[in-house]
Amino acid sequence: MSHQTSTAAPALSPKFCFNERALREFLRLSRSTIDDSITQNLNALYTPARDGFDPSSTAARQIDPTAERTIDPPACEGFKNKVLFPSWQARSDVLSYCAGVATSPDPEDPDLLLREIESAKDRERVVDERLDPYSARFFPREPRTESLAYLVRYQRSVEDIIRARTWGLVTERCESSSESWEEALNKWRETKQRPVRDL
């Protein structure tokens, strides 16, 4: 039986966070490996031989014979503890780290000098709105920390939606308890003695 393994977290650094393309790519790859293919991952856990062969199963075409069957509890627990939760935790760690970077001072911002020059020029401008009603408009360049903070907020909301969907399928196929994905993840963190971090 082989199923997907969780995507390893990248080396965390401010440079990684500010490379928004790399950050989005890590999240996309992790989600596609685990969450987007959750049905296939769960189907890989199902062992048909456990039930024995049923000759009547060949009488009618079955679209997905595993869809209605529950998975062996130890296989489910193994998948959640070794694949699903580590993957979610890796994404949480990356998003929490990058949220911290986004709220920290950024002395290495390559656009800092350019923004200061634009701001100084804007203060010196003489605006006569009678001649040009649009001349008062000034759109300063956004600091990269603000752009990163927006990206992290957006990705956290995406993460909530994805985890809720994945957890719904896991609880349905694994006959898990009715706890939320947040409660289950926090219990797993406690067994790993990991700090509980908000998404």
From TrEMBL:
Entry-linked InterPro entries: MIX23, MIX23_fungal
GO terms under cellular component: mitochondrial intermembrane space
Span list, region Disordered: 175-199
Family under the similarity heading: Belongs to the MIX23 family.
Pfam families reported in the protein's UniProt record: MIX23 (PF09774)
Name listed for the protein in its UniProt record: Caffeine-induced death protein Cid2
Ranges of biased composition (kind: Basic and acidic residues): 184-199
